[in-house]
Amino acid sequence: ALITLRQLLDHAAEKGYGVPAFNINNMEQGLAIMKAAAACDAPVIMQASRGARSYAGDIMLRHMIQALSEMYPDIPICMHQDHGNNEATCLSAIRHGFTSVMMDGSLMEDMKTPADWDYNIAITERVARMAHWVGASVEGELGVLGSLETGEAAKEDGSGAEGKLSKEQLLTDPDESLDFVKLTKVDALAIACGTSHGAYKFSSKPTGETLAIQRIEDIHAKIPDVHLVMHGSSSVPQYLQDLINESGGEMPQTYGVPVEEIERGIKSGVRKVNIDTDIRMAITGQFRKVAKDKPTEFDPRKFTIPAMAEMEKLCRDRFERFGTAGNA
Ligand code: G3H
Ligand code: 13P
Ligand code: NA
Ligand code: ZN
Q: Are 289 and 4 in contact (CB under 8 A)?
């Protein structure tokens, strides 16, 4: 059945677990996530970016979610808009059956220019008020996602803030978090702690200097009842970098967010953990492997079946390590 983010994260907080929020763009991702969730009895958050909505189409996504919930009637599913940039994006998502939206007012509508406090409060409060009228949940963001190493958002995929960001912007302020949630009435708060989108988060294994889990603990101490969201939470596992590079890929060595650091976050109020890059790498790794091992193959299912198995393995691991397993 479809449920809201609020319902799911209230349960997660009560039981002390975290929920991975996997980005989806197509049927294969949806099938693999649901198969993993059913195997470990976990509730699911699937999220679609604006890019995913224009790729698959709103009607296709709406019917896909309906289909997945019919196929897995015992698994609760929250369908969430990832990084909504304005009221129209959020409201049209709700109209297409999404039960939750992110209004990302940390950036202006162009999703490149860091926004100021007044803009973020006003637009997030407006979206939360409208979403709540119709029973949908809202995630807001305070702080700008980006690297504490370089002071920049990861831009290899063209997403994130443009220009240099200050440490102030890159680390969410605990006192401001309290005011932000009071003024906007969001159901969940995305915070910035040194993670960034994409594969190139850290140039070496992160330390307390580059990945500030301590900051999450400080925020949680101020607002213990607020559900926190960690963006940019792919672990960029070495085995997937190797899989890609052993099959003709040329991804430079990189480091993501170690799963044990996410587990630490979950102990401090992180309830939603956004993961896109790891799934992309699982798919691409298997596509490349099949292409390399069987150059005569041209049936796309021979590519998508191992890709789904690789995704499923990744999803199961996160459901288990985050404590989501057993909570459907
Ligand atoms: O926030 C970024 C997510 O990884 C979605 O990426 O906009 O390329 O679909 P996308
Ligand atoms: P990753 O790029 O680390 O997977 O982050 C995804 C994300 O935060 C989507 O909102
Ligand atoms: Na989101
Ligand atoms: Zn994100």
A: no
**Distance of alpha carbon 99 from alpha carbon 88, whole angstroms:** 15
Q: Are 101 and 80 in contact (CB under 8 A)?
A: yes
The residue annotated as part of the active site, out of 82, 173, 187, 278, is 82
191 phi, psi to nearest 5 deg: -120, 160
- Ligand 2 pocket, residue 232 CB under 6 Å: yes
Please report the ipTM that was assigned to this predicted complex. 0.98
Ligand 2 binding pocket includes 275 (Cβ within 6 Å): yes
CA of 49 to the centre of ligand 3 (A): 8
Q: What pTM was computed for the model?
A: 0.98
68-116 pLDDT, tens digit per residue, is: 999 999 999 999 999 999 999 999 999 999 999 999 999 999 999 999 9
Ligand-binding annotation for 276, yes or no, is yes
> How is domain 5-321 classified at the architecture level of CATH?
Alpha-Beta Barrel (3.20)
**What residues does each domain of the chain span?**
5-321
The CA 278 to ligand 2 mean position distance, Å, reads: 9
82 a catalytic residue: yes
CA-based nearest residue to 6, from 183, 135, 187, 185: 187
Alpha-carbon torsion, ordered 125, 7, 319, 255, to 10 deg: 10
What percent helix, strand, coil does the chain show, rounded to 5? 45, 15, 40
